[in-house]
Amino acid sequence: xxxxxxxxxxxxxxxxxxxxxxxxxxxxxxxxxxxxxxxxxxxxxxxxxxxxxxxxxxxxxxxxxxxxxxxxxxxxxxxxxxxxxxxxxxxxxxxxxxxxxxxxxxxxxxxxxxxxxxxxxxxxxxxxxxxxxxxxxxxxxxxxxxxxxxxxxxxxxxxxxxxxxxxxxxxxxxxxxxxxxxxxxxxxxxxxxxxxxxxxxxxxxxxxxxxxx
Length: 213
Fold this sequence. Notes:
By secondary structure, the protein is mostly helical.
């Protein structure tokens, strides 16, 4: 019997949920399509009807879990924000709050940072990870550039150093919390660290030169 569109979509979502669990438990390299099919409760044939291979499945998982970031950092939304600096702050904080409230998002983040082993058989997966990382970098860089154009950054800001510092602050906190989530609540801590990082930038810690006194 031919599956309905709703049934097909349900199977697709089940496979993504199963892939998330298997990648998180076993690591991407050791995960197999058979394990994913069994976790989803479907046949290998059903899996192959939706996905060509493990890499195709991993990319679909990335598309699902990067959707919130992509939506917030769309060019149109950034351009329309009356205060991009405040919009950037709220967006960064929102991403941390999602990790705390959404177990699936947190598992995906752990997969991206800890479970994509750098092996010869995993090169395509790592290329996908690098592609999404570059996309995130480009979007944050664009937001910072708009902040500069709106006069929210010092006139002689070194934009490259500014970007590196902000991302390092974000990723450093992210790694610390993923490793020890019981150590501190992310909401209050993230807000304080993000605000401290933004204040450091605005105070002119990263400018191309300083005026002589």
